[in-house]
Amino acid sequence: MERGGLHRFGARALHVSVLGFFVVALGFPFFWMLIAAFKQNIDLYTVENNPFLFNLPPTFEHIRFLFVETRFMRWLGNTALVGFLVVAITLVLAVPAAYALARLAGRWGERLGIAIFLTYLIPPTLLFIPLSRVVALLGLQDSIFSVVLVYPSMTIPFSIWLLMGFFKSIPKELEDAAMVDGLTRFGAFFRMVVPISVSGILTVVIFSFTLVTQEFVYALTFISPERNQMIGVGIPIYLVRGDVYYWGSLMAACLIASLPIAVVYNLFLDRFIAGFTVGSVK
Amino acid sequence: MSAGAKREERWLAPAMFLPAVFYILALVGVPLVLAVLYAFSDARIGGSGFHLVGLENFRSILQSPGFRKAIRNSIVFTLSAQVIVIVCSNILATALEEPFRGRGLVRFLILLPWVAPVSLGTIGWKWILDSIYSVITWVLVALHVYKPYSAPMWLGEPNLAMASVVLVHCWRLIPFSTVIMLAGRSAIPKEIPEAAAIDGAGFWRTLFQIKIPMMTPILSVAVLFGIIFTFTDMTVVYILTAGGPFDSTQTLPSLAFATGIAGSDLAAGAAISLFLVPVLIAVAYLMLRVAHRSEVA
Fold first, then answer.
1. How many interface pairs between A and B have CB atoms less than 8 angstroms apart?
2. Which of A70, A89, A204, B139 is the most exposed place for a label (fewest CB within 10 A)?
3. CATH number assigned to the domain covering A64-276
């Protein structure tokens, strides 16, 4: 009995220390952003000071600088606008496509669905060079509409894949009954299936929006003026100003931009994971 | 179903999915073809001509030491990150499997590196690894491992810079891989490991002979996505080291960017990025096999 208790205590200690180690290792950069965001410059840049302590009183100067004297707000606005437009394009194209492939196209609908999903594996780093020319030819270089055009090519494939799984789980009888009542097939899709698929559609909205906030390569390649940047590029590239120390406001920017995205993504994560596992989990 | 509804269905399906298919063809298919064309041409930013030059680009990049270094780095980064990620995420998934108080908060903190934008998380690491104000340096000095001002510059020495890039990739991928593992574990019927335990199988035996084999499909999904995310990534390298010091951390994607966009040589950049394709095809093939096998089972 004594030995069993000791054993259980050991297992528990191991459990807590494993979790503690990973929480610290994975969460530390964000904790460190928080510390830097409120430290006075003299404190930040004195090598002898213990970096874990506030050796001088905390300051809001970095936050003020970020919002008043940089284009941070503008970048947030750009990102929100691009996110909104990309979500709209994604929904208009992916929702009907997913329904058609899940319900109407039979056996080869499934195959086409897998083919579309595989295009999600083609990375920006393979396509950014030719796309930079396409964007220039369309006159979209340096405009946020360059990424509005290109991002849906990344969001649509995964969204179709997620929604196909979602639509397949809806009983067919629902549409059959609606069509007996005189609705057309499209009417049944639009008035019956779409309203009860709100949670699947919401998942696609969150996925597309967070992808817009996380993308780096295309935004870096297509857009150069500082005022037209997205947050993902604006913060790491344009808040860095030569030999002037900038870490406080830079860390504040990273934290402020990351946390809301992280919270929302986290809420929907399990559903994205269901898409990633490609049917290898039943 | 009425005849009218039947007729509607015949054209409705294509009308509903073709717009999406065309969008993807135009913005993924066409650029993919263009990438191949560019690789065999002399296209430059600002250049007027476009001539096919055969294998000229491939000949010159294969001879450049920078390219060979980039291929080697890409492979080293990808493989070492996968090994570390698989080991760590298995440990972490085991620890997170049983419910406990505060699990939601712990899960959120652990997931932060994956759910926050990668470019911003990497900037956080750049501050942690700063040449002068690094917290790691401060701790090592405080522990008397190094004398003040004599600690190495983490991003300034080739081997340490490479280790830093691998570290940040692992930091980013462990959460992703862990949630995939958790999804895989929750799909294993509880009775099987329990029955094994009753039959006298210990923790390790249950792990190696029952849990890991049953998780092979999900393990391969995690590894395959991990390979794609690391091998094709340029954000981490670009922000952390910009390929330096002395091109020692350059990877295929970051070299393609440095050559094709920053260096204006579209043709050579496109040729470099085409070397990603064999890995992508292999991953896609394996992914289809995993999906197919679990469909049959």
1. 295
2. B139
3. 1.10.3720.10
